Amino acid sequence: MLSRNVKRPPGPKGNWLTGNLKMAQSGSFDFMFRSRDLYGDILYYRIAFWSVYRLGHPDFAQHLLQDNHRNYDKRSIDYKLLRRVSGNGLISSNGAFWLRQRRLLQPLFHRKRINALGSMMTGAAERMLQRWATTIKAGEPFAVAESMTELTMDIVSRALFSLDIGETAVSFSRAFSDVNEYLGSLDPLFAIAPWLPTPGLNKYRAGMAELNRIIYGLIAERRANPLHGNDDMLTLLIEAQDEETGEQMTDEQIRDETITLLIAGHETTANALAWTWYLLAQHPEQREELERELEAVLAGRIPTMEDIPQLVYTDKVFKESLRRYPPAWFISRTTIDWDELAGYPIPPKSFLSISTYLIHHHPDFWPEPFTFDPERFTAEQEKRRPRYAYLPFGGGPRMCIGNHFAMTEAILLLATIAQQYRLDLSPGQEVIPEPLITLRPKGGLPMLVTQRKR
């Protein structure tokens, strides 16, 4: 019988009023690693009004996401705040409604459907490289993270809407960036007084108004002018029917799922690619190994879906990049009923944060965890590791529905770009991770671009 005596794990005390808010707002991972070294893989602390159980071991992740997942949902404070952006979309919904939406959206991510998008993905990369050739001057840095965001937004908007939405895509990305930055600031006012006219809240509200304007406009346009015979994602969302009830989605539900797909489909992959260029620039031997594989497999041509099984080292490089800098750097859940972890009773309505970043750098599972080593992802190495030691796409029944889309896109884009260009850091640049809703490089990652000679 689980004890009701709530003995909490150890952890940093912080300020009597704000807890560890200041350290969390600093955007530094130093707090995360120092507290793990002091208190272990499970600890308890406060961020302003919120109490947090932070988990940094694969066994805890497996327990929450797989073994006892029915006792955990997404009613945590961070998801409540995220719902102000994404509504009741697939990422933030719960229970029977989530299951219904997952069932409706599953056909969008069928492997055959994703395979048909391969040439569209590489075509977008080729258009970007043509712009690079004419706009980027030798010796002058440019913001690689911003360029990757524009590229992935181009791809996801074509996959969703069968449209080149051009300036609309730029407006969406800028608006979401404003929203992302504000949410990442952990401003307590967002939870208790979101109506206040502070500069941060005003910028957030303006960003949300722009996101909604764009999404509802696209939905209205498609309803007024259906693309007959076209099965892009927006058409499928509009036409989708629940198998049991025959119900279709309302405009609000379509908006929630569309904005969720747009954000998840461009922000996370863009950040992952930006971090990959950063890591390759720091490790010339691994970059040269990648280039040798691309020359052997592609011989200068654009990659296709059929090439992906032969791009073995390319796949390893991207997986290792996801380990070092997982865009989804934490996963949160709330307990429904009592549970127990590592001997500590966990009461109902407790907020638990699985630290993907800590787990991906746990020395028990990743020797020399801060070393960039794509060979960690040989088939033999992957079999030896616990399943939940690596979770860039989460795990269990709520594993990211778009993981195959993201991996396919990333491998094709990485191969297309790396065989034509090299990206190097600007001299003296300090690259700092910025943990917002997603983990991105602070400052846009200015890099120097050199066209490769064949």
Summary tags:
five-stranded mixed beta sheet, 454 residues, three-stranded antiparallel beta sheet
Which blocks of ≥5 consecutive residues have pLDDT under 50?
Answer: none
**Quick one: overall form?**
globular
Q: Secondary-structure element sequence?
A: HHEEHEHHHHEHHHHHHHHEEEEHHHEEEE
Tally of alpha and pi helices? 18
Mean pLDDT: 88
Structural class: alpha+beta
Instruction: State the total count of DSSP E strands.
Output: 12
Order of strands side by side in the largest beta sheet? 1-2-8-5-3
Beta fraction of the residues?
Answer: 5-15%
The biggest beta sheet reads: 5 strands, mixed
Cα separation of the termini: 68 Å
Radius of gyration, taken over Cα atoms and rounded to an integer in Å: 22 Å
Q: Percent of residues in helical segments?
A: 40-55%
